[in-house]
Amino acid sequence: MHKKRAYGRVEKHLAAAKEYVIRKSDGTNKIPRNMKSPNISTIAKINARDTFKGIFWNALESYRGLARFKSVEKRIVYENEHIIRDAIADCAKQNAPIAGISIHQGAFELLHRALCRYSEHVHLITDSVGDIAFREVLKDLRSDPHLTEYHPDETGRLIRELFRTKGILAMVIDQGKHTKGNTVSLFGRPSTLYLRLPKKINEMGAGIVTFRTWSEKKRIVIRFEKYYPPKYDIQHGRETSARLYDQSLKNAAPSESPLVTGIAREVETWIAEHPEQWSWNYHGNFTTAL
């Protein structure tokens, strides 16, 4: 019973991930060129208790930040802001919007609010959480004059508004309910990232910026990582995907495109750098490999 529940699943996933990064570090699995290797020392030091502790404290920091507690706001620092500013400028020349995508790591609720620094039209796609009362509280906390929330069933309206306002789509990509995702490899195991919407709008002419957050003792870091220009897959072709995908992993499922593959590799690195701040059993990650 223990192995099938959340704590046991996290223990099992962590053990498999540690084995994977050890294989990568000793050369058993050849790392493709230009791909950063996961940090073995960081991931080796944590256990399931660390991850649940991290989830609790980061959730608390998220809600305090959304409530605009000064003690939280003054700790937030932004890194690589030039990436999103340059991306917005580039897309403006093409009369195109931007998608800002991330994962559930660190005080992730703060990411959506952070995007309001860069646009007056931030479109946030969310799913139902908890009971009605809690959803209303969370909606009130998230509220900002520049942010509009959408349910997944409103995807069509969201896309229309996004391209009309030339704003920013705010979205996390490592969870999804009642929707089909993209099969990728994370730590050598088949998993799912929900990139169908970002991929679709990229094909339609929107740019994508990846960003993330993590917590340190005295700082909450919000860091912008990479810009994927509009119609990225057309520009880079499927050969890029083949080079980045590690064919030696028997359990790994190939991604659909260079865009999906590139984002999956980023996500794997983010998790490996701060493994205690990501939920390893989130919505059944890696269930196909258990």
How would you describe this structure to a colleague?
The chain has 290 residues and is an alpha/beta fold. 44% of the residues lie in helices and 17% in strands. It has eleven helices and nine strands. It has helices at 6-25, 40-44, 48-66, 70-73, 81-93, 109-114, 132-142, 155-165, 196-204, 232-244, 258-273; strands spanning 76-79, 98-102, 122-125, 147-150, 168-172, 182-186, 189-193, 207-215, 220-228. It has a seven-stranded mixed sheet with strand order 1-9-8-2-5-3-4. Strands 6-7 form a two-stranded antiparallel ribbon. Strand 6 (182-186) and strand 7 form a beta hairpin. Helix 10 (232-244) packs across helix 11. It is globular and about 50 Å long. The two termini are 14 Å apart.
Q: What is the 3D shape? A: globular
The secondary structure category is alpha/beta
Largest sheet: 7 strands, mixed
| Lateral arrangement of strands in the main beta sheet | 1-9-8-2-5-3-4
Number of strands: 9
Topology:
Elements: H1 6-25, H2 40-44, H3 48-66, H4 70-73, E1 76-79, H5 81-93, E2 98-102, H6 109-114, E3 122-125, H7 132-142, E4 147-150, H8 155-165, E5 168-172, E6 182-186, E7 189-193, H9 196-204, E8 207-215, E9 220-228, H10 232-244, H11 258-273
Parallel strand pairs: 1-9, 2-5, 2-8, 3-4, 3-5
Antiparallel strand pairs: 6-7, 8-9
